Amino acid sequence: MDRAVFFQELRRVLQREGFTTQAGQDSLLPVEWDGHPLCRITEGGGVRYRQEDVATLEREQACEQATHLAGTAREYMTLLEQAPPLRAQGLTGDFRVLADFNGTVLAGHQTKFGIHFVTWDRDFRWTGLNYGHYFQDNYLAAKQDFAIRSGLVPKYQVFNQEQLTEIFHCCADTLNTNLNLSPKQEACIRGIQDQIENGIPDVVDRIKEQEQQLAQPYIPQQTM
Predict the structure, then answer these.
(1) Which of 48, 111, 142, 218 has the least CB density, counted as fewest CB within 10 Å?
(2) What pLDDT, in 10s, does the model give residues 35-74?
(3) CA pair distance 57, 16, nearest whole angstrom
(4) For residue range 128-171, what is the model confidence (pLDDT) as tens digits?
(5) How far apart (Å, rounded) are the C-alpha atoms in residues 188 and 27?
(6) What residue spans of the chain are helical by DSSP H?
């Protein structure tokens, strides 16, 4: 993969999430968070950092998020480079087939805002496309939609981010309440939390925001 192309896309991805990047150095992309150096990303999507740059919990979590973003971008950029063109009646633009199963297609295409993603159902003649679901730059949501639409994963087995956030919150409440949990139960609940955090790195911030909103006093609207 062309390193410059990958780093260009990765810069967009990181900047959308509040990171800043510097010019590449020795095949590495320097990343800053909150105005200070955080880590450097390799052209293979790996992450290098100095221990002093991740010395707090917040910076450690930021580095984990940057690692996740780099791995995700590397995944779809590799697929896009190898993917064949998507041919269909009425379709214009350079769409590439990232996945195709059971009459459902996951496609990606280059835009001036970065790589965007869409899923379609093929028509019964397999010459056209129907019911496009457009996800802009949200690759993970597009991939999940493809898995459900194609039947690879049953819909009832998939939780959205809002549901996972509530599950994480309930796990935290359970651990903070004196319920005399067994070591096995506590380990299971903490494992659930870790799994959710891997998928939603900012889940704790989401919960704090919810709690702040609930703590705000209710002001009834006045009627004329």
Answers:
(1) 218
(2) 999 999 999 999 999 999 999 989 998 999 999 999 999 9
(3) 21
(4) 999 999 999 999 999 999 999 999 988 888 888 888 888 988 99
(5) 41
(6) 3-16, 57-82, 139-149, 161-176, 183-199, 203-215
Structure tokens, 128: 């056209």
CB atoms within 10 A of CB 19: 20
For residues 118 and 129, give the distance between their C-alpha atoms in angstroms, rounded to a whole number.
11
Residues in the chain: 224
Q: Which tokens is 55 given?
A: 């010395």
Residue type, 66: A
Closest CA relative to residue 117, chosen from 82, 152, 79, 150: 79
How far is C-alpha 159 from the chain's CA centre? Answer: 14
C-alpha 112/C-alpha 116 separation (Å) is 10
Token pair in block for residue 82: 């190898």
What's the pLDDT score for residue 206?
81
Please identify which residue in the block is written with the tokens 């063109």.
Answer: 85
Cα–Cα distance, 47 to 180 (Å, whole number): 40
154 sits in which H/E element:
none
> Measured in whole angstroms, how far is the alpha carbon of residue 126 from the centre of its chain?
31
pTM of the model: 0.76
CA distance 48 to 44: 12
Going by their DSSP bridges, the two strands 28-33 and 129-136 should be labelled as unpaired
87 sits in which H/E element: none
